[in-house]
Specification:
- There is one protein chain.
- Strand 6, helix 6 and strand 7 form a beta-alpha-beta unit.
- By secondary structure, this protein is an alpha/beta fold.
- The protein is built from seven helices and ten strands.
- It folds into two domains: about 130 residues, Tetrapyrrole methylase, N-terminal domain (Cobalt-precorrin-4 Transmethylase, domain 1); about 110 residues, 2-Layer Sandwich (Methyltransferase, Cobalt-precorrin-4 Transmethylase, Domain 2).
- The protein is elongated and about 60 Å long.
- The strands form two sheets. It has a five-stranded parallel β-sheet with strand order 3-2-4-1-5, with helices on both faces. A five-stranded mixed β-sheet has the order 6-7-10-8-9.
- The structure holds S-adenosylmethionine.
Length: about 240
């Protein structure tokens, strides 16, 4: 039966794929995956590569999403790629679109799914959740994301940080995603918001890959050398 499934492939370790995700990938005629340029690898594809059954000759199609904050360019890429997916399903194909972590956390899937639901209300579209990078990181470091009455904020660190101080005043845990190159900007803000120097400060970079880096310290111990320099980074700061 032709249809489209958006699949979360987790944070990097192929063993963290759900059974449902593996079955859907094996049953697909076509696997579509995001990449920033035609000649750049797809991280989502690299996560599942070892479970692709080569004997099935499944077609793999890279969908290009330029790395930009230009809204017009982004919207054009979501619409173009949603159209490619829809036209393939309408040809009778069973398509899966794979995305890192979970499809509903800062993923291009969100915009394409919205566009497809509007333009093709009868299309069979479903979603398989994936393990979110935040929880993979929590397991590796051994920290709770939230306990008891604690409140947690998730902040995309490469956007406007003007509201972060107010949010931090009322949160026990702050989780920063999207581009570790901006993490240095939040340190003073957190201190001003009342995060004490002994707060846990944990950074994860390239989790689940051979280049994985994990550093834990206190907020008071942070310096330029302990920060991260890569887009694929997570920062958790937690009052203790
Ligand atoms: C566009 S968001 C996608 C989030 C993803 N949908 C999820 O559920 O984790 C990309 C950001 O997620 C975080 N991230 C996802 N996977 C990661 C990994 N393996 N290692 C470190 N950070 C990761 C980083 O903050 C990265 O900049």
């Amino acid at each position: 039966m032709p249809g489209l499934i958006g699949i979360g492939v987790g944070p990097g370790d192929v063993e963290l794929l759900t059974v449902k995700a593996v079955k859907a990938i094996h049953n697909a005629d076509i696997i579509m995956c995001p990449a920033s340029k035609e000649d750049r690898p797809s991280i989502a594809l690299s996560i599942i590569e070892s479970i692709i059954d080569k004997s099935k000759n499944q077609e793999i199609i890279k969908l290009i999403f330029p790395m930009t904050k230009d809204k017009d360019i982004l919207e054009a890429s979501w619409k173009r790629n949603a159209k490619i997916m829809a036209e393939t399903v309408l040809k009778g194909k069973n398509v899966v679109y794979i995305t890192i972590g979970d499809p509903y956390l800062y993923s291009t899937w969100i915009y394409m799914h919205r566009d497809l639901k509007e333009k093709y209300p009868d299309m069979d579209i479903s979603v398989v959740p994936g393990i979110v990078s935040i929880f993979s990181f929590a397991s590796k470091v051994g920290i709770s994301v939230a306990e008891g009455a604690e409140k947690v904020a998730i902040i995309p660190s490469c956007y406007d940080l003007s509201s972060v101080k107010e949010i931090a005043k009322y949160s026990e845990s702050m989780i920063f995603l999207k581009d570790g190159r901006y993490f240095d900007q939040v340190i003073e803000v957190l201190k001003e918001a009342g995060f004490p120097d002994n707060s846990l400060f944990a950074i994860g970079q390239d989790l689940g890959t051979d280049n994985e880096i994990i550093r834990t310290m206190t907020l008071g111990e942070v310096n330029d050398d302990t920060l991260t320099t890569k887009y694929f980074s997570i920062l958790v700061v937690k009052r203790v």
